[in-house]
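#onboarding

Welcome to the new folks! Below is a worked example of what a typical request in this channel looks like: someone posts a single protein sequence, and someone else replies with the predicted structure as tokens. Don't worry about understanding the tokens yet, we'll cover that in week two.

Example request:
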Amino acid sequence: MDKRDQFYKKLKKKLKKDTVFPSKYLFKFIIPSDEAKIKQIENMFNHLGAVIQKKTSKTGKYVSISILVVMKKADDVILKYKEAEKVEGIISL
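Example response:
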């Protein structure tokens, strides 16, 4: 099992222990300042009623994105993280 699989397995266990679903979940990402990449992240959460906040770094090279959204179950949270991994240069917090 690689590190990513271990991370997701641990996250799922923690979510099931600490969270009663459906529940609001806060996703946080840092991505390079690229409008296409920002749109890609925003589109992942379209039609979910998400509240999205963006903040550009001092140098303007990066954008932090906070997304508050109601998730139905732990597996849905993990699926969103896996979907986000496809965005080049993304850092999930």
